[in-house]
Amino acid sequence: MSVRGRSYRYVGPVELKAAVRPGSGGCRIGSAADFASWVAERSAAELAEPFTFVVGRDGVLRLAPRRSEHVACAGGETVLSAGEIGFTCEAGRWAVGNVSNHSTGYCPDGSSWPAVARALDDMEIGRATGFTHEVVFRRCPGCQEHNIVREDDFVCVFCGRDLPEAWNVDPVA
After folding, report:
1. Which domain of life is it from (predicted)?
2. What Å distances lie between residue 111 and 7, 79, 123, 126, CA to CA?
């Protein structure tokens, strides 16, 4: 299945991508039944923390424990979105409690939300209308370091240079 939208290549440390082994990606959750099976295998302690997620180019959500690297969750592949996600269960129905695009390995733009929304809708999981915490990533045109922009302060924390307003993390994209 092909899903439209910008895709994100891994832009993090090369040694983390080099450590990814075939078949080591996160758990593929493409339907409500997949999610039900996956969540039944999780402990209450696991479910109390957010999980690492990616949405692959096929539009399917993949989940891994929170401290997993996004590139490992993605099996080293390009993604449509990446971040952290937490679930809540109320009256026997699962929903997303919080979701962010916080992935310093892929640095996805906030515009990657529709891919996440489609994947969650395919799983029949209740969700918000956007990221509950959106992270803004920019690459400094001077020193080339990746930055997280805080409080709309578009200044590189490494060299003090102004950061662009538009997403620019992957120079090839």
Report:
1. Bacteria
2. 11, 13, 21, 20
Phi-psi region of 75 (alpha: psi -120 to 50; beta: other; left: phi over 0): left
- What is the C-alpha to C-alpha distance for residues 157 and 148, in angstroms, rounded to an integer? 9
Distance CA 159, CA 173 (A): 24
Tokens 């895709």 correspond to what residue?
Answer: 7
pTM exceeds 0.70, yes or no: yes
pLDDT digits (tens, 9 = 90+) for 54-99: 999 999 999 999 889 999 999 999 999 999 999 999 898 999 999 9
CA atoms within 13 A on the CB side of 35: 21
Q: What is the pLDDT of residues 26-64, one digit of tens each?
A: 999 999 999 999 999 999 999 999 999 999 999 999 999
